[in-house]
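Please check what follows.
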Amino acid sequence: MILGIVEININNNKAFEYSVIYYDKEYGKDFFCNVVWIETATNIYIINFEVVNDNADEYKDIFNNIKYSFVEL
């Protein structure tokens, strides 16, 4: 299940984000996957966050802190 693609701004860079919930047969659990891609003047960066879906709410603030702290060096 894709939860939608949205355009966001990360430190004055155009970025896009979407989330997916998928079932992992090997682990026997649903996983929450959040993908962010950030376009800078010279590069595209992709950040992928994954966690067991039952724990997704506990990690959303951590994921947000990481993605909004992005700085191209």
Observations:
- Helices lie at 56-68.
- DSSP finds one helix and four strands in the chain.
